[in-house]
Design brief:
heterodimer; A: alpha/beta; 6 strands; B: alpha/beta; Rossmann fold; Alpha-Beta Plaits; four-stranded antiparallel sheet; 14 strands
């Protein structure tokens, strides 16, 4: 046992001390925040504006096409298909003579072709104008219609989960986001840390240090020490990410204007139910922040984080020993590793696909089986847990899933150890899957 | 004297072949023992059983009079395998410390011993260098240090001189003698017969998983001698085939030297008497014993050793 500890220490410190580890630890959260902010920014700002000349022979559409941030409609005179570009328009829209209810072609000609979404949007706007016109003909006034549209947006669906006598606010959107994020995170880390194990084992074999070491420790100790050491690196990384993200959020909140902070605090104290005057006072953004915090607080974070750590470790241990077994039979050629890795990466990718399906419908039979079978349970179960325990995932299912995962990684570790101890000392021979199976199931 | 290591009827079979097929021998305390054999003869398998990496299918290993226990006795063995290497990205000092700790030394103890050996081999300045910066010879030296660092009773060296220049090879060789003098037992495995002749007291030759030769170097040479003598004379033309001997080879580098093979049951002094009677001026007269190399080739040739080498495990 003492020797495993020495091995774990080396595997751990040699990686954590590495500059790349620090870089990834701080860059990934920053990158993720940057990605979210960036994509939001570009979806808002980064769009082109198109100025469209509308040729409307009988003036029917004048002032009826609504401008948007991206589309500006103008009704100039003396503009036609030959000179619209010269006059500064990006597109020209040729309307037919409007004749009420007949189908007609509307022709759009552009300098640069327009994206599908914008074309759809133009088509909708034209149809809306026609619809308005028809409604008016039927005797409904535009202003009444508008006010009805606005005042009709009053229903807000609040979903609750019944847990015995208590019922709890549920939030499917957030559950989905959390489930998706944790499933994705497990998927990515499984690959990163699984291949880290594979590379570590390959390094020991190709550097020819394996035999030196196994003359002092048992091959099983070497394999387990490596797997645990790398798993610990993964946990450290997660812990750092959580700290970095929390710090970033804290700093972000601290940067808000003082009065907004106090408004958010007031909202928190009153549980969102301020007096009418107070509610009116609270700015829209303070309400948004409050709403966000409120939603976050409805989630059972200790459960989610606890399960996440369990499934990360369980899944990692399950797959890492398989990666180690593959690493031990690879010779110098990295291409061997590619083809041998395939049967291991396949179930990981497949599980990720299942996760994406299950997240839409967390209660199907497939969801159940996929979250009990250890090949896919780390990802699929995480996706389901976020919907609530025990409402979506009963306790017995969770327990069963955890037990099968533990049994699963004990089994893969045991089988892999047998492949590993033969493979690691074998040089210059290409090992087939058949041989690996023979080693795995041979009596020792 | 008590043998340090005693193997009896060791057998190890792989799926496709008998890698070690009933081999027994003893190794005396403090001796330098040569384990020889062609590629794929089963040497590495044998060494892996002695180091506890493999368990024999049957047979027993005794270390220092007691049943060999791979878990406990690993502390007493230093093994430098033929396929050896180091972590490339690790500092040399840390690496030595790590491997010493895996051998069971405490950190403080390991530090003291590493310092001693690094000083001895003038490697102090290497401590913070990465292994990838070392030349092959330098890393061989480091590997030797790591092997003997924990002062094992039994040191196993598989091709220890490969990649070393003569200067460093001599350094290691002297150290091997030193360690043996201090009481360590050394198993030395190599294909380089001239090194075996020079270093080893006792050898065992294995081929196709079986022991085919066992004895001291001097005894074995006697056993395989072919009664060949070299005669050096200033008048070689005077020597011709006769009933006492036949001439083997005149075309030696030295034209005055003639190799003769004595006829059956002719004593060497009879030849000398004959030469003196013939008034042939003798400069030197000595027996030529076969080299281990010759013996090795003679024994291994024509077996299926070459084909077997492909099934290396």
């Amino acid at each position: 046992m003492h020797k495993i500890w020495i091995i774990i220490q080396r595997e751990y410190t040699s990686r954590v001390k590495n500059k790349r580890f620090l870089l990834v630890t701080f860059l990934v959260p920053l990158l993720m925040v940057g990605l979210i902010v960036g994509s939001a920014y570009f979806s808002f700002k980064g769009t082109e504006e198109r100025k469209i000349a509308v040729i409307d022979p009988n003036g029917f559409f004048k002032n009826k096409l609504k401008n948007s941030t991206q589309l500006k409609f103008e009704f100039p005179k003396e503009v036609d298909t030959s000179n619209y570009q010269a006059k500064g328009y990006s597109d020209i829209l040729l309307m037919p003579v409007f004749e009420g209810d007949k189908k007609a072609d509307y022709i759009l000609r552009s300098k640069k072709s327009m994206g599908f979404n914008l074309q759809e949007s133009i088509s909708r706007k034209i149809n809306a104008a026609i619809e308005d016109q028809m409604l008016e003909k039927a005797g409904i006034q535009q202003s009444i219609l508008d006010s009805i549209h606005q005042s009709a947006q009053i229903a807000e669906l609040k979903a609750y989960e019944d847990e015995g006598k208590k019922s709890k606010e549920s939030n499917a959107g957030l559950a989905m986001a959390i489930g998706y994020a944790s499933g994705l995170l497990i998927y990515i880390t499984m690959f990163i840390y699984g291949t880290m194990v594979l590379r570590g084992v390959m390094e020991e074999k190709t550097n020819r240090i394996a035999e030196v070491i196994v003359s002092s420790v048992k091959p099983f100790e070497l394999m387990l020490g490596k797997i645990i050491g790398i798993g610990a690196v993964g946990l450290t990384q997660f812990l750092m990410w959580i700290i970095v993200v929390m710090t970033l959020t804290g700093v972000g909140f601290g940067l808000l204007p003082d009065d907004m902070q106090s408004q958010v605090q007031q909202l928190q104290q009153s549980g969102g139910q301020m007096g009418a005057a107070g509610l009116a006072q609270a700015s829209e953004s303070a309400k948004n922040i409050y709403a966000f915090q409120h939603v976050i607080s409805t989630t059972n974070w200790p459960l989610i984080i606890g399960c996440f750590l369990f499934y990360f470790l369980g899944g990692f241990l399950f797959y890492a020993s398989l990666f180690a077994a593959v690493g031990s039979v690879v010779n110098e050629d990295p291409q061997d590793a590619q083809s041998l890795m395939f049967p291991i990466t396949m179930p990981i990718i497949f599980s990720y696909i299942i996760t994406n399906v299950v997240i839409q419908n967390p209660n199907t039979a497939m969801a159940f089986w996929a979250s009990v079978i250890p090949f896919s349970s780390p990802m699929v179960m995480m996706a389901r847990i976020s919907y609530g325990v025990p409402s979506t995932v009963p306790y017995w299912e969770l327990a069963l899933s955890m037990l099968t995962l533990i049994a699963g990684f004990l089994l893969t570790t045991w089988l892999s150890a047998k492949i590993y101890r033969t493979g690691i000392l074998m040089y210059g021979k290409k090992v087939t899957w058949k041989e690996m199976f023979k080693w795995a199931f041979a009596k020792s | 004297m008590e043998p340090l290591l005693s193997l009896s009827h060791l057998v190890k079979h792989y799926a496709t072949q008998k890698a070690v097929d009933d081999i027994s021998f003893d190794i005396q305390k403090g001796s330098i023992f040569g384990l020889l054999g062609p590629n794929g003869a089963g040497k590495t398998t044998l060494l892996r059983m002695i180091t506890g990496i493999f368990y024999p299918d049957s047979g027993t290993i005794q270390l220092d009079g007691k049943q060999f226990d791979p878990l406990m006795d690993i502390r007493e063995i230093g093994y430098m395998p033929e396929e050896r290497g180091l972590y490339k990205k690790m500092k040399i000092g840390e690496q030595a410390l790590y491997l010493a700790q895996l051998r069971g030394l405490s950190k403080a103890d390991a530090m003291v011993k590493i310092k001693y050996w690094f000083e001895k081999f003038e490697m102090q300045s290497w401590w913070n260098k990465n292994v990838e910066d070392l030349s092959k010879g330098m890393s061989q030296k480091l590997q030797f240090v790591i092997t003997v660092l924990h002062e094992p009773k039994l040191i196993i060296l598989d091709e220890p001189f490969s990649g070393l220049d003569p200067l460093n090879a001599n350094l290691i060789k002297d150290e091997i003698y030193n360690l043996a003098k201090k009481g360590a037992t050394i198993i030395f495995s190599t294909h380089r017969m001239e090194q075996v002749e020079e270093i080893c007291d006792h050898i065992v030759l294995v081929n196709l998983g079986k022991k085919i030769l066992d004895g001291t170097v001097a005894d074995i040479k006697q056993q395989f001698k072919e009664y060949i003598f070299a005669i050096e004379t200033s008048q070689p033309e005077l020597i011709n085939d006769n009933t006492l001997f036949s001439i083997l080879d005149k075309a030696d580098k030295n034209p005055n030297k003639i190799l003769v093979k004595l006829s059956q049951s002719v004593a060497s002094n009879e030849v000398l008497t004959y030469l003196i009677e013939q008034q042939i001026p003798i400069i030197s007269y000595n027996e030529v014993l076969p080299s281990l190399n010759d013996i090795f080739i003679q024994l291994v040739e024509d077996t299926h050793a070459k084909a077997r080498a492909f099934q290396n495990i």
